[in-house]
Amino acid sequence: MAGIWFPYATPHLVTLTTSANKACQPYHPRMPVFIPLNSIRLWLNGDISELTTLLLPDNTLPLKIQAC
C-alpha cells in the first residue's frame, strides 16, 4: 500500500487511495493504492510524471474480499 509519513511532534500517516477497481466498486468507491514490488524504486525515487500510472486503479490485482 502507498502512504505518506509525516514525522512531526505527533507523527501522522496518510494512506493514499484511488478510485475503486472492478472488484471493490460494489463495496466502496475508493480503495488503497497498491504499489507493485517491481515498482518500489520508481515510487521512492522516480520522477513525478512517471508516478501517475501507479496511482490508477489496477483491475489485475488478485484481491480477496471478505466480510469482517
Automatic annotation (TrEMBL):
InterPro entries: SRAP, SRAP-like. This is Abasic site processing protein. One of its GO terms (molecular function) is single-stranded DNA binding. It comes from the Bacteria. It holds the Pfam family SRAP. One of its GO terms (biological process) is protein-DNA covalent cross-linking repair.
